Amino acid sequence: MQMEVMNSPFNEKQADLLNQLLSSMTENQKIWLSGYLASAPALAPKTPVSQSGGEVEKTEAAKRTITVLYGSHTGNCEELAEQLSQDLKEKDFQVTVSSMDDFKTKNLKKTEDLLVLTSTHGDGDPPDNAMTFYEFLFSKRAPELKGVRYSVLALGDSSYEFFCQTGRDIDARFAELDAERLYERVDCDLDFEEPAEAWKEGVLEKLAEQSTNPPAGVMAESKEMDVGPVYSKANPFRAEILENINLNGRGSNKETRHIELDLEGSGLDYEPGDSIGILPENEETLTDELIQEMGWDGETSVTITKDGEIRSVREALLSVYETTVLTKPLLEKASALTDNEDLKVLIEDTEAVKFYIYGRDLLDFVRDFGPWNVPAEEFLAILRKLPARLYSIASSSSANPDEVHLTIGALRYEANGRQRNGVCSVQCSERAEAGSTLPVFVQKNRNFRLPESSDSKVIMIGAGTGVAPYRAFLEEREEREDEGENWLFFGEQHFVTDFLYQTEWQRWKKDGLLSRMDVAFSRDTSEKIYVQNLLWDQRKEVFRWLQDGAYVYVCGDESRMAKDVDRTLTAIVASEGSLSSEETSDYIKALRTEKRYQRDVY
Hints:
It is a single chain. The protein has 602 residues and is an alpha/beta fold. It is built from 22 helices and 21 strands. Helix 8 crosses helix 9 and helix 20 packs across helix 21. The N and C termini lie far apart (67 Å).
């Protein structure tokens, strides 16, 4: 069968394509296609026609475009935003998606449907890639948003006082600016997947109700290719441990593990700046003491998911539920399961709750407010899921194919008369030997990336395990043969026992890859010296590098080191640039906007 152009409504190119297709089809395929084409007009959206014969103008709801903005530190909100954008596009909506700081604020009043997904950082602060937008939104320059519809998804950690504060602030501010709330804000704890999915479905339903665009459908069957399992947080890869080495010397106050994992066959890929997520397990001793205190049978079966997944009580407490962190929402839920008046009095006093939960865990709590007469399944239902732990990757996949390296500091301390251990860090230290496996996934972090330009200068600032991504950075720059200079600021307690990866830094220094290295060992001198002190001592050269276009990276503890470094960097810009307070603020904002000031802090 050949189609002639002169006898058809198709142009020459279309006729050629149809002829090629028809000549390769079987009779059954042609019959199916003819039936599909016959039904297509009935299935296709009908465009209303006016009495004059022209198309009727689409309704206001149909014309509206959707803007998805995210503020993300670890990448969760970014991934959720991208998935939401994809789902919207599949339903034939027009969508734009970007980080808040990449969004041009002058266009805010022009948005129509605005969906915001944001985490909260530290003491209620916005993530770094949302800071400029957040400041604009709460400034006098923020426009009236009448006619803008919006909804907010907030991610946070209920163990912090300012739980989901950034999302709450933005939600309230939009309302103040006279925007219309399309769908109620949803606040998510560390186990955010289910509430985030419920928020997305609610938003999609509201948009569908108010749009004339019908959801796109799939009318033809397709045979999916078998590409093997896809590993993710929901389906982690069991990575074999190749090496597990203590980096600290004898006599150190710390224990820092260098762990090498085998990723062969996983299909997982990563870039320097990304993190590895590990799904940890609670300690068996702590779990057994908790079961004994509650008077439960550890082998009793309990339902742990809405889908009806069954585990024993002991299995659930080991690998499903968090037992080492207390939160105010947990105490409030638990108070409904007991007649203990002391607990009811406690939860009425916010300051008293903050004091109580600091340094205590679930075993402390059930001992302090027992006895409990609650079935295991009912009590477990108030616990939040055991969150994955994220660790900055300390290797380049270019230099270490099919491997990933991590730098993990074992957390041990004493509080309220008991020894406390970090759930995942001590598991990796004491119960993760070479040859065993860990369930892992890759957490992308596009907000902590090397410059694309090979000749850009890089300043890397980190203390303790915060040096991990810089090992990955230098491995990558070495593999890429980048020409840009690299400057490392590193701090720890003691030179002799705590100089992590010392021989590697010294080799790179000798080879010229590491141009400069300044180190501070705070316990080796009478006056404690930290990385921010080194920065200030080198302020003239640091500012010269900034003026030359250098990229600045900060990794490590947010509450102390990162804040001190930020203050010092601001002081350097003001001092060496002879800038006013406002000019200095603009300079730092420009560094963030240009992605030349990036932080991976926790």
